[in-house]
């Protein structure tokens, strides 16, 4: 057993874990920003931009994540240069993250739109009557309430995002799942394979379970707040 | 035929990833995509059956009075929901052969995806049953219904209506998630599209066609879920 969990292997996995977490974090940040933009456009935009935002969301939501990751890695580099702060070793990780963010934004957009729709209409009217412009109404009055309602669902989406980084293993990107796949392919005995799988599953479980406990805590806390 | 028809637009030397010639030659290899599509549909169908069976049993157990049954489903749901599907597929793919159990990739997909979504369906069923007011149970037992009869005639018919939209959303997710079989070289749509793209370098057309094929199964389901949910909301408001 000790030769499975030697220093090299653990270090190898740890590098994968760090990359997974960076990708998950970047994806969450990008997708919340893009998702908010899409949700606002789909709800309050003019006719054409509404249609465009709806089209984007429906297309991305109804096709697999892996497809967008692959498409981003293989198609986008022929249109855009790699930003200079990314080294070439991480090129496909970078493009994969872009595809991942594009997909996750569509899910976030629907979650945030749910939050926006739950804000009573009177809030708009009250804000207008106080002389707020539409932009300030949205920014100071509607969005903060929408986010407060949407945070539990957004956090569950963060759990899903952490889990979904494992899809990048299909693109030979050296995140946790891919690293574990390399180690698994070298192992022969059942005990070693099981120990390795258990370790990786536990790492994911600890992160995701912690987040989902947070979701439940937050849901309970805000259940009667409105 | 398609090639002759589109001849004026075809520029074989084009380096644009979206060149018409690339789309034409991709469409000429439609058999890759169709076989993958059929594979995806059959994996999804069987996995859905497993997910529904696991989910219904799990959901009913989660609402039972026995603490052990509730704890058991809680553990199932938490473990399956908080670890990635890919790791679960790896378990079936790497850990079973040394034990002498050799599943082919199709079965790995059906069992892996089925059990994973079974956990989600179980939560859907649980919340559906819990959303039926408690008085319904009490009224039913006061009329002499046994537990099974209560479930069969009173609770389940009400539950189905409530859980249909989230269940349909789970179906969409299940179909999309069969694409992870790519990682263990299953023959489903995403794998076939990727193989074709890698061989021919027609990446963009291959992914666009795959996206269209996924979209035409997933969008009607998602649309139905949304439509039905809106109708339920209105019915609820009108009451």
What does this structure look like?
The complex is a heterodimer of chains A (226) and B (239). Chain A is an all-alpha fold and 226 residues long. Chain A contains eight helices and no strands. In chain A, helix 1 (7-44) packs antiparallel against helix 7 (176-186), helix 4 (91-117) crosses helix 6 and helix 6 (134-164) packs antiparallel against helix 8. Chain B has 239 residues and is an all-alpha fold. Chain B contains ten helices and no strands. In chain B, helix 4 packs across helix 6, helix 5 crosses helix 6 and helix 7 (134-142) runs antiparallel to helix 8. The longest helix of chain B has 36 residues, at 203-238. Chain B is elongated and about 80 Å long. The termini of chain B are far apart. The mean pLDDT of chain B is 87. The chains are: A mainly alpha (226), B mainly alpha (239). Chain A binds chain B through residues 58-59, 61-67, 70-71, 74-75, 78-79, 159, 163-167, 169-170, 177, 180-181, 184-185, 187-190, 193-194, 197, 200-201, 204-205, 208-209, 212, and chain B through 17, 78-79, 81-87, 90-91, 94-95, 98-99, 172, 176-180, 182-183, 190, 193-194, 197, 203-204, 207, 210-211, 214-215, 218-219, 222.
SSE topology:
The complex is a heterodimer of chains A (226) and B (239).
Chain A: H1 7-44, H2 47-61, H3 65-75, H4 91-117, H5 121-129, H6 134-164, H7 176-186, H8 190-222
Helix pairs in contact in A: 1-2, 1-4, 1-6, 1-7, 2-4, 3-4, 4-6, 5-6, 6-8, 7-8
Chain B: H1 2-5, H2 20-28, H3 30-62, H4 67-81, H5 85-95, H6 105-131, H7 134-142, H8 147-177, H9 189-200, H10 203-238
Helix pairs in contact in B: 3-4, 3-6, 3-9, 4-6, 5-6, 6-8, 7-8, 8-10, 9-10
What tags apply to this protein structure?
heterodimer, A: 226 residues, mainly alpha, 8 helices, B: 239 residues
